[in-house]
């Protein structure tokens, strides 16, 4: 086991609780801060219990403020939905100290670049590590309980500044095991996230099931034609990455690395996962993150980058517009990172210089 360290976690959802359980059971001192104020109350008088691929219990510390959570912490893990990244980062910034590493899991819309540039503007020298998805998949099962469903077998991580990529890789391996490889930069990490391309079409084409709150296993309903639409969005994502000189793996390769699938096509992979896992269940709430988060912070972000790079993204734009139509909202306006990052009007060379900051 690696030497014990103090780790702060911002968030109290399934991923935050799973990460806390993993780190605490490995002997680290874990402090959990709830951005909403009450999400960690169940941990004040009870140990955090985990089931699934991680069985056990351990005590964690509940911090009432960011300053309490971050004081003396070696690393800070941000594990909140991406639509909360900017607000949480703004809350953490005054408490961050030079020398700390912030791990953003998972990162989207270059939220890690926002944090890094904001910290530098304050004269605070931090390292920001970005993951395109989470190390663990999990769901909260109670006030002090979490079910950990899977641990990924390979996951990319990048760093800002890029010169600290090796140190970020070593830290992530120290905390979560030898499953990490290095992404070239945070833009690559952002574009490795396949959730938006999968979740948008899956939610739209199963919308009546969501509205009726039906119990529907999502891989079973990733039918061949739905998978074909997802494939078109994925092709646009890969072309966008290539325009920036980046190579990202296909959605099929993502499933193979994450869940050990062996089928070649996405439709067959979905059938394989359904046969193996029988789930997870699809969303049953029209406020689902599949549209409310993955579209503005994933597909809208990609569409903006497409304009920067001159890459046509008609399938992506169609899903963005359809999602906005069915929700009755301007989803492009809901992304609160694009404006402060000055992405609209940015050049390819300018953005690459920023994500490759030394």
From TrEMBL:
<dbReference type="InterPro" id="IPR051729">
    <property type="entry name" value="Opine/Lysopine_DH"/>
</dbReference>
<dbReference type="InterPro" id="IPR013328">
    <property type="entry name" value="6PGD_dom2"/>
</dbReference>
<feature type="domain" description="Opine dehydrogenase">
    <location>
        <begin position="184"/>
        <end position="325"/>
    </location>
</feature>
<keyword id="KW-0566">Pantothenate biosynthesis</keyword>
<dbReference type="Pfam" id="PF02558">
    <property type="entry name" value="ApbA"/>
</dbReference>
<keyword id="KW-0732">Signal</keyword>
<dbReference type="GO" id="GO:0015940">
    <property type="term" value="P:pantothenate biosynthetic process"/>
</dbReference>
<dbReference type="InterPro" id="IPR008927">
    <property type="entry name" value="6-PGluconate_DH-like_C_sf"/>
</dbReference>
<dbReference type="InterPro" id="IPR013332">
    <property type="entry name" value="KPR_N"/>
</dbReference>
<protein>
    <recommendedName>
        <fullName>2-dehydropantoate 2-reductase</fullName>
    </recommendedName>
</protein>
<comment type="pathway">
    <text>Cofactor biosynthesis; (R)-pantothenate biosynthesis; (R)-pantoate from 3-methyl-2-oxobutanoate: step 2/2.</text>
</comment>
<dbReference type="InterPro" id="IPR003421">
    <property type="entry name" value="Opine_DH"/>
</dbReference>
<feature type="domain" description="Ketopantoate reductase N-terminal">
    <location>
        <begin position="7"/>
        <end position="151"/>
    </location>
</feature>
<feature type="signal peptide">
    <location>
        <begin position="1"/>
        <end position="20"/>
    </location>
</feature>
<dbReference type="InterPro" id="IPR036291">
    <property type="entry name" value="NAD(P)-bd_dom_sf"/>
</dbReference>
<dbReference type="GO" id="GO:0008677">
    <property type="term" value="F:2-dehydropantoate 2-reductase activity"/>
</dbReference>
<dbReference type="Pfam" id="PF02317">
    <property type="entry name" value="Octopine_DH"/>
</dbReference>
């Amino acid at each position: 086991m690696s030497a014990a360290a103090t780790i702060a976690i911002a968030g109290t959802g399934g991923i935050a609780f799973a990460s806390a359980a993993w780190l605490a059971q490995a002997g680290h001192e874990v402090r959990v801060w709830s951005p909403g104020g009450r999400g960690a109350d169940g941990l004040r008088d009870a140990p955090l219990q985990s089931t699934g691929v991680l069985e056990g219990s351990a005590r964690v510390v509940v911090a009432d403020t960011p300053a309490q959570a971050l004081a003396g912490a070696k690393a800070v893990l941000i594990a909140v939905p991406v639509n909360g990244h900017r607000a949480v980062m703004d809350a953490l910034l005054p408490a961050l100290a030079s020398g700390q590493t912030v791990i953003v899991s998972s990162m989207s819309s270059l939220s890690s670049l926002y944090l890094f540039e904001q910290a530098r503007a304050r004269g605070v020298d931090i390292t920001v590590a970005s993951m395109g998805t989470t190390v663990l998949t999990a769901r909260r099962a109670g006030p002090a309980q979490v079910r950990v469903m899977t641990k990924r077998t390979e996951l990319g991580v990048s760093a800002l500044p890029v010169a600290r990529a090796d140190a970020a890789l070593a830290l992530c391996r120290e905390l979560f095991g030898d499953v990490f490889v290095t992404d070239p930069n945070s833009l690559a990490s952002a574009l490795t996230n396949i959730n938006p391309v999968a979740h948008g079409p899956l939610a739209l084409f199963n919308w009546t099931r969501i509205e009726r709150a039906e119990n529907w296993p999502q891989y079973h309903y990733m039918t061949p034609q739905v998978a074909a639409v997802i494939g078109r969005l994925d092709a646009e994502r890969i072309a966008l990455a290539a325009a920036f000189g980046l190579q990202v793996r296909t959605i099929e390769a993502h499933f193979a690395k994450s869940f050990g699938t062996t089928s070649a096509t996405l439709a067959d992979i979905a059938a394989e996962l359904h046969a193996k896992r029988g789930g997870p269940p699809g969303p049953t709430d029209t406020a689902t993150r599949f549209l409310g988060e993955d579209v503005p912070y994933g597909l809208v972000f990609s569409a903006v980058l497409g304009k920067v790079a001159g890459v046509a993204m008609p399938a992506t734009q169609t899903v963005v517009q359809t999602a906005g139509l069915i929700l009755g909202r301007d989803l492009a306006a809901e992304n609160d990172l694009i404006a402060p990052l000055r992405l609209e009007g940015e050049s390819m060379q300018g953005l690459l210089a920023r994500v490759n900051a030394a």
